[in-house]
Amino acid sequence: MKIIDLAPGDTRLLSDLLPVLRELRPHLTEDLFREIYDEGHGLGLRFTAAYDDDGRCVGAAGWRIVVNTSTVRSLYVDDLVTASDARSTGVGRHLLTYLQEHARETGCHLFTLDSATHRTDAHRFYLRERMAIAAFHFQKELG
C-alpha cells in the first residue's frame, strides 16, 4: 500500500481521491470539491490518498491540524473512507496509522474525528483501533 499526501492542483485529487471520497460525501461535485479545497487549504485542510499495489486509489482522508483550548494541538480527521470494494482489507488501518504518525511528528497530543451516529460499522472499526468515544458533537442548521 502506498499513501500519498495530495497538494492543491494535483490532478489525482479529482481523478483518484474524489471518487472514493464521494462514497462518504455524495454531495461533492468537482466544482464544490475544488472550492472547498481552495479555501480550506489556507485553513489547514489536507487530503491523503491510499493506493493499492495495482495503483488504484482505495482510501481517502481529509484532515487538518487544529490548535485550540480544548485539545491544545490535535490532528482532526474530517473524512476517512475506504472504497466499498476494498473494505476490510486494511486500508483504513493504514490510513489511521499514517495520520497518527504524522500527528506525532508534528507535535500533536490528540488524534480526533467525528463519525455520524448512523455509521455503526465505522464505530466498530474505530473502537477496534482503540479510539474512545470522548464527546458528543452538536450542530444546528442555520438555514
Automatic annotation (TrEMBL):
Coiled coil: none
Keywords linked to the UniProt accession: Acyltransferase, Transferase
GO MF annotation: an example: acyltransferase activity, transferring groups other than amino-acyl groups
The keyword Translocase belongs to this UniProt entry's keyword annotation: no
Highest taxon in the source lineage: Bacteria
Domain N-acetyltransferase span(s) in chain numbering: 4-143
Protein's name in the database: N-acetyltransferase GCN5
Organism, as annotated: Streptomyces cinnamoneus
